Amino acid sequence: MRTISTSEITERVRELCISAACRLPPDVAGALKAAFLREESPLGKDVLGQIVENFEIASSEVVPMCQDTGVAVFFVDVGRDAVVAGSLEDAINEGVRRGYTEGYLRKSVCHPITRKNTGDNTPAVIHTRITEGDRLRIRFAPKGAGSENMSRLKMLKPAEGIIGVKNFVVDTVREAGGNPCPPIIVGVGIGGDFEKAAMLAKEALLRPVGEPNPDMEAGAIEKELLDSINSLGIGPMGFGGRVTALSVHIETFPCHIASLPVAVNIQCHADRHKEAVI
Fold first, then answer.
1. Antiparallel, parallel or unpaired: β 82-85 and 2-5
2. What CATH topology corresponds to 2-20+65-143?
3. Strand pairing category for 71-79 and 136-143
4. How far apart are CA 195 and CA 85, in angstroms?
5. For 57-77, how does the pLDDT look when each residue is reduced to its tens digit (9 = 90+)?
6. Chain mean pLDDT for the chain
7. Please, which pLDDT band fits residue 117 given cuts at 50, 70 and 90?
8. Helices then strands, each counted (H, E), the chain
9. C-alpha dihedral over 211, 180, 183, 69, to 10 degrees?
10. Distances (CA, A) of 40 to 127, 187, 240
11. pLDDT beyond 90 at 189
12. Which DSSP state fits 85?
C-alpha cells in the first residue's frame, strides 16, 4: 500500500486550478489554430484570430483567458493500492480554495436558493472511482455557465434509435447558437441511466480534442455529427462560418432495454482541462 498525503493533493489541485485558467492544453490550442486556417468566413476567421491571440496572451502573462473561471469539476481515479491520509474531498476543496484565491480567479459558486456566494468557489463537483495501481489521477475541468447552460439530457424511446440520437445532438447545438461561445466541443453520453448519461457526456469533454472513440461505430457517428454541426453555419462566436465545433466526443454505456438516455454537454472554445498523477 502507498500513502498519499492530503497536503500534496491540495498543492497539486491548487496548481491545476491556476494553470487551467491561464493556459490552454496543446490539443485545444492546436485545434483552434487549425480552425483559423480552414475558416472560410472573413468575420469568423477574424474572431478565431482574436481567440488565438487571447489565449496566447493569457498564457504568456499568466492571467485567466476568460472571466468565467467556472465551477471546479474533478474526475478522480484512486488506485486500490493507494491510501489517502485524510479526507480526499477536503483536500481537493482546500486546493480549489487556494487556487482560486491565489490565482485571482473569479469565484462563481453560490447557494442555489439564496444565491449567496460561497466566497471561495467551493464546494467542487467531485467524481471518484476505484482503479488498479497505487496512484491518484486527478483530472480537472473548470466549467463555465455559458456552455453548461446549453447542455441537455433526454430520455429517448429505444425505437428512435441512432437517428433520434443524432437529431437530438444537432438540435441541441442549433438551439444553443452562439451562446456557448463556439467553436465548441460537444460531449455526448449515450446509455446508462439518467445520471450516468450526463456523467458520460461531461467526461467525454476531457478526451483530447479530435481523438476519436476507439469503437469504430461510435467514431463514425462522431465524424458524421461534426460534419452536420459544422453545416449549421453558426460559426465562431455565432457570427457565421464553417467552424461551429472543433470536435464531437461520444461515450457509451449499456442501458435498459426500455430506455435510451442521451446527454449533450457543450464546452466553449476555452476547453480548459488539466490533469495530475500523484
1. parallel
2. Dihydrodipicolinate Reductase; domain 2 (3.30.360)
3. antiparallel
4. 30
5. 999 999 999 999 999 999 999
6. 97
7. very high
8. 8, 10
9. -70
10. 40, 25, 10
11. yes
12. E
C-beta separation of 199 from 73 below 8 A: no
pLDDT higher than threshold 90 for residue 24: yes
Sheet holding 136-143, edge to edge: 125-131, 71-79, 136-143, 274-277
Q: Which residue has the cell 487571447?
A: 54
| Reported pTM | 0.95
Return the pLDDT at 1: 87
Q: Residue 52, SS3?
A: helix
- Domain boundary assignment for the chain: 2-20+65-143, 146-271
Distance between terminal CA atoms of the chain? 14
Measured distance CA(94)–CA(6) in Å, rounded: 10
* CA–CA separation, 210 and 31 (whole Å): 8
Which cell goes with 99?
Answer: 487556487
**What's the rounded Cα separation, in Å, for the pair 147 and 182?**
9
Of 202, 214, 196, 225, the closest CA to residue 273 belongs to 202
Q: Using an 8 Å Cβ cutoff, are 153 and 264 in contact?
A: yes
The alpha carbon of 218 is separated from its chain's Cα centroid by a whole number of angstroms, namely 19
